[in-house]
Amino acid sequence: xxxxxxxxxxxxxxLWSELEAWAHDEMRSVNGxxxxxxxxxxxxxxxxxxxxxxxxxxxx
Length: 60
Description:
It is a single chain. By secondary structure, the chain is mainly alpha-helical. It has helices at about 15-25, 30-50. The model has no long low-confidence stretch (mean pLDDT about 85).
């Protein structure tokens, strides 16, 4: 497995508490939850970037 990139993240304590609860509900660590959320967002962004506005059903 490739080495994982490490970085420092400053986060609001209220948001941290929400992420902690969410991670607990889904049986993940907070780090794992953040990575999961970021992966989902990247996939969504990538799939939208491949569509033209005419092809994108969410476009107005």
